[in-house]
Design brief:
Layout (H helix, E strand, L loop, with lengths): L3 H9 L4 E3 L1 H9 L5 E6 L8 H15 L3 E6 L21 H15 L8 E5 L1 H4 L4 H8 L4 H4 L3 H8 L6 H17 L3 E5 L3 H13 L6 E5 L25 H9 L6 H8 L4 H12 L5 H16 L2 H15 L10 E2 L11 E2 H7 L6 H9 L3 E3 L2 E2 L6 E2 L1 H4 L3 E4 L3 E5 L1
Parallel strand pairs: 2-3, 2-5, 3-4, 5-6, 7-13
Antiparallel strand pairs: 1-6, 8-11, 9-10, 9-12, 12-13
Helix pairs in contact: 1-2, 9-10, 11-14, 11-15, 12-14, 14-15, 16-17
């Protein structure tokens, strides 16, 4: 096992805060395997690279010789995490939570070492609490303390509803740390209050408190907002390799080092060298980004698949050829009174645009091609013969073969 100081250097890479850092160093100096906690509420079935950031940090701890306890919050998910919410989160049924949990676990073990992971479900202890147990836990927190949370405070001062059950969420998540005797708990920066609540409860119950380690939120492919399906800027762990590679190549250059630290399998020393090389112009950004894309695709597939994804990317973007796996779609080529086909409707039917308005904007921006011939701006109607059996392209990565 590496020295405590060297372990701490590796752990700190890409982190936002470690509270308190001196306690983590003290725990590491003991030379024993630490119990690293991550609690996740399976509120959605699929996860993306943003969700995977704490999983990557867990794997770092495992590679350093420590043990991970992954808590599936099938008990707390029945309440719903109020973090960052301006309204009460809709409550899920036990069936919804169970279905989401299985999908999440399958994806999480693409990253974690199963031999160094304990998978537990907090419903096993939360749903067994009787009134006496709930009162014992909740009595250790004050309403004033709970209202220190920004989201609760903002809703309270803004006279927005707060369900009493929502107050239980940080308390029950804190109780998870007591049950599993966590040494360190990980979470996003938006989870700091919940992590500190766990530390506080452990201390009040006579236990050595956990260390809280927060990780920054990962921006999506737009380079601005956090990665989210609702923003359409996400890179899913189950994305097809070619799509995953292309999405990573589309991130802004300024985010490359952050992606290396939070989403890649490269060592801290390798990433430090990349950061220096980019800073002094010794490394070309395109080559660095290609290496990043290959690394991430390989992490979720394999080396051969990553190489094939790079070759396909070059085929499409360097040689301007169509992808090899273009879907064939059947569309309606009925004409209007002028004997022409409304192209915006065809783009929507082919799955290349969500709405006709979006399709028109893409046409006006020069982003639509028919058999590699650009469609002129404002050219919304075309001859039906032009579309029969044509290869339709929208933007850089989206194609459809019309049949």
């Amino acid at each position: 096992m590496l020295s405590a100081e060297e372990q701490l250097r590796i752990i700190k890479s890409g982190t936002d805060a470690i509270i308190p850092e001196e306690l983590l160093l003290e725990k590491l100096k003991r030379g024993t395997s630490l119990n690293i906690k991550l609690g996740v509420d399976p509120t959605a079935p699929d996860i993306h690279l943003g969700h995977a950031v704490p999983l990557r940090k867990l794997r770092t701890f495992q590679d350093l010789g420590h043990h991970v306890t992954l808590i599936i919050g099938n008990g707390t998910a029945l309440i719903g995490d109020p973090s960052g919410r301006s309204t009460t989160r809709p409550q899920l049924t036990s069936e919804q939570v169970a279905a989401n949990a299985q999908t999440y676990v399958d994806q999480a073990f693409k990253i974690l070492d199963p031999d160094k992971t304990s998978l537990v479900y907090n419903a096993d202890w939360i749903l067994k609490l009787d009134l006496e147990g709930i009162l014992d836990i909740t009595s250790r927190f004050t309403v004033a303390r709970i209202l220190e949370r920004d989201d609760f405070h903002n809703r309270y001062t803004g006279q927005l509803p707060i369900g009493v059950h929502e107050f239980l969420y940080p308390i029950l998540q804190a109780y998870d740390s007591v049950v599993i005797k966590a040494d360190v708990e990980l979470g996003g920066t938006d989870q700091l209050f919940n992590l500190l609540a766990g530390r506080e409860l452990m201390e009040k119950m006579g236990m050595e408190p956990q260390v809280c380690l927060t990780l920054p939120l990962l921006e999506g492919t737009d380079g601005v907002r956090k990665m989210s399906k609702s923003y359409g800027n996400y890179i899913g762990l189950t994305d097809e390799p070619n799509d995953m590679f292309g999405k990573i190549m589309s991130i802004p250059d300024a985010l490359m080092v952050k992606y290396y630290r939070l989403a890649s399998t490269c060592s801290v020393d390798e990433i430090d060298a990349i950061e220096r090389g980019l800073g002094n112009d010794e490394l070309h950004p395109n080559k660095v980004k290609r290496a990043l894309a290959k690394n991430i695709v390989e992490a979720y597939y394999d080396a051969d698949t990553a190489c094939a994804a790079e070759a396909e990317f070059d085929r499409v973007f360097k040689k301007h050829a169509a992808p090899t796996d273009v879907p064939e779609v059947k569309v309606d080529l009925s004409t209007n009174d002028d004997g022409l086909v409304y192209l915006a409707r065809v783009l929507v039917e082919a799955g290349l645009a969500k709405t006709a308005g979006e399709a028109r904007r893409t046409i006006d921006g020069g982003g639509v091609r028919i058999d590699d011939v650009p469609v002129a701006p404002k050219q919304y109607n075309v001859e039906p013969a032009v579309l029969q059996g044509a290869l339709l392209q929208s933007g850089k990565r989206h194609f459809a073969k019309l049949v």
